[in-house]
Amino acid sequence: MRDLMTIAEAAKAAKSAVAKLDTNAKNAGLHAIADTLLAHTDEILSANRLDIEAGRENALNEGLIDRLTLTADRIAGIAEGCRQVAALPDPIGEVLWQRTRPNGLRIGLRRVPMGVIGIIYEARPNVTVDAAALCFKAGSACILRGGKEAFHSSKCLSDLMRQALADCGLPQDAINLVEDTTRESANQMMKLNGYLDVLIPRGGAGLIRAVVQNATVPVIETGTGNCHVYVDASADLDMAARILVNAKCQRISVCNAAESLLVHRDVAEAFLPMAQKALAPDHVILHGCPRTMEILGDSIVPATEDDYGREYLAYEISVKVVDSIDEAIAHINRYNTGHSECIVTESYAASQQFTDEVDAAAVYVNASTRFTDGFEFGFGAEIGISTQKLHARGPMGLEALTSQKYVIFGNGQVR
Amino acid sequence: MRDLMTIAEAAKAAKSAVAKLDTNAKNAGLHAIADTLLAHTDEILSANRLDIEAGRENALNEGLIDRLTLTADRIAGIAEGCRQVAALPDPIGEVLWQRTRPNGLRIGLRRVPMGVIGIIYEARPNVTVDAAALCFKAGSACILRGGKEAFHSSKCLSDLMRQALADCGLPQDAINLVEDTTRESANQMMKLNGYLDVLIPRGGAGLIRAVVQNATVPVIETGTGNCHVYVDASADLDMAARILVNAKCQRISVCNAAESLLVHRDVAEAFLPMAQKALAPDHVILHGCPRTMEILGDSIVPATEDDYGREYLAYEISVKVVDSIDEAIAHINRYNTGHSECIVTESYAASQQFTDEVDAAAVYVNASTRFTDGFEFGFGAEIGISTQKLHARGPMGLEALTSQKYVIFGNGQVR
Q1: Which family, according to UniProt (chains A, B) (predicted)?
Q2: Chain B environment of A406 (Cβ under 8 Å)
Q3: A347 has a chain B CB within 8 A of its CB
């Protein structure tokens, strides 16, 4: 077992070789990984069974077991994901701009690899491959630390990926899995200054909080989502109902599912019964403010202050009647997590005000919050969804995994 | 005295009002600040005298006293700086791109204010105004914490700036000075999650290290600079000497001054005596590797391992003969701080390899490292020079103080 410092040294030593690979070499590596994973499906499934058996012994809940479980189909999907990353344009080397200064210096801004990227994630074996593939295509070495419940699966996948790279003559230390899954190794990883250029936590609120609190390396905070749908006074109410149902129910477990409904008082009497009816087939529990309770009565439950800040990730939603768009925006900016927010409106002024003033990574007019996703935005695969304001905001594709440098061409200029 | 949490709440409450200001309002505020500072020059000088007297009592060295000292001319320069920031283009609202997706969604990426920006800096009263002006133009509220030795000056400047904004009907809580200058308040500021969107330390290595180690809010690390000039085998040696002298001596106290000279062995015998002669008028002390010593003899001092990592900020430079450009690049990537690096060469291949492989914010071919500076790059005033890879790298002008958000216009799209 390589300890964390051995891995950190290996990744740091590999980063310049990875950064120098041209697009063809990187794509060949990604296809080799896909081929190798497919060819070793049985081996991966055997390793995965060890994790599942241990999970059942430790009484993991069925949701976690499901996320942990690989099948031949899922492995094929993971391999196909590598090929999709290979098909994405290479972000490295793009010159974002170049200008000639009055003194003749040509100053250009070039997209370059990040260096070494750390990812801390939960017990999802697919992330081991997805994250490695994205980092590799972005020209960076990676250090992956997955949840211990998926250790055997991740170890097998990581070994196969490293072997696939080595077989192509590519640097296998581009991909590194932390094999020590103790809390100490996670804490040590968060303080790998001088080795890690960025650390990205991917998982639930607790994991992200731990990384933000403890890391001394630069972090990109990815997202929990307390997302709102605001139905404006001028909304097309049928559209609002369709968007609400989609945002709440299309997939309840994701960070861009709606968790709260705000309704302008002028349309509350008309819309709230429509909303209740539209959400009924999915048995959504409504947590309503007093005015919502007046309209919908005892068929719903009263909202507490806590409800407005909750990410249910379940068939539940908080509901509040507001007096104005100003109140809606203030409420959202108070309770949201900076993820995805939606207004349904036919008013030009309301659409302008909402998109200007709501503070979030993605602000929607007349569309479901469920579109905040790398593929839907046209970026291809994503490493996560940033809810911070630095570096990257919203879905993070390959470009978010890169850095920049200024390259300056002169002919002897001095100051 | 407002305590830190009072200030944090005030800044957070002000940020949406600041974000909404149009360019004309922001520029009017900046000119009002300039006018107010000029009109109160005597008051500022009186406050400054308190700091200087205290500094002398506490035996501050003359360099620090000089940085602390304001004069009528310096105040006029600070006011002029505000007007220059007013003259810069407003970065806010720019749509970086907008694309229509196959489903008709129009997804655009818009530049938006950061929110609340924290700056921790040393005893330089001018930074109080420079930083406030840049943050204000970038549409963000700021929380400033300067060195305690400049407290009276900074307090006076901050009060005047706040008054100037209030007199124009602009939110005075856009600008906030931390009046508690204890170490505890600095540590507390580094952990203002939920209030500070970014914290930028501006000052020496110790300050920056303390912020990187202790902050739980997102940080942009600004730079110490161990910058190299590499004279390639193919270099125009006269040009190399001019660049070396400029990079080392034009201003020794700045982060983009050269601290190390690397010379290809093929030109070492020819160039090293030229370099020594060129640096002689400034009495630069050369710390040479054994091969440099062989050529220049006892007229210079031997370099220790420590010398290669030192940011002298003085008339001193380390000198090393290398066997190849590969060795030069490896040496630079080992010892540099990711700031500014220069190759002097007439070789196409060498220029490509150096700019591709050197890992730094600014990589120069045939030009002095002294150009890494917001004004020289055409950005106008800068808040600092980032040496990290996340968010901003190199000189940070107004754009580096902004964030982005996706704004999505639909007509009822659901997934």
Answers
A1: Belongs to the gamma-glutamyl phosphate reductase family.
A2: 361-363, 372, 377, 393-394
A3: no
For residue A16, the Cα-to-chain-centroid distance in whole angstroms is: 27
The verdict on a CB contact (< 8 Å) between A394 and B412 is no
Query: What is the spatial distance between Cα B223 and Cα B202, in angstroms, rounded to a whole number?
Result: 8
Instruction: Give ipTM to 2 decimals.
Output: 0.93
| Class level of CATH domain B227-372 | alpha beta
Which CATH topology does B4-221+392-409 take? Aldehyde Dehydrogenase; Chain A, domain 1 (3.40.605)
Delimiting residues of CATH 3.40.605.10 domain(s) in chain A: 4-221+391-409
Q: Tell the CATH topology of A227-375.
A: Aldehyde Dehydrogenase; Chain A, domain 2 (3.40.309)
For residues A335-340, average pLDDT: 95
The closest CB to that of B20, out of A212, A357, A403, belongs to: A357
Of B16, B376, B415, the CB nearest to A250: B415
Domain with CATH 3.40.309.10 in chain B: 227-372
> Residue A220 has which token pair?
């990109």
B413·A371 Cβ contact <8 A = yes
**For residue A205, what pLDDT is reported?**
84
The 3 state secondary structure assigned to A28-48 is HHHHHHHHHHHHCHHHHHHHH
* A409/B360 touch (CB, cutoff 8 Å), yes or no: no
- B97 pairs with which residues across the strands? B109
pLDDT, one tens digit per residue, over B341-400 is 999 999 999 999 999 999 999 999 999 999 998 889 989 889 999 999 999 999 999 999
A409 interface with B at CB cutoff 8 Å: yes
On whether the A4-221+391-409 domain is CATH 3.30.390.50, my answer is: no
Report yes or no: B71 at the A interface, CB cutoff 8 Å. Answer: no
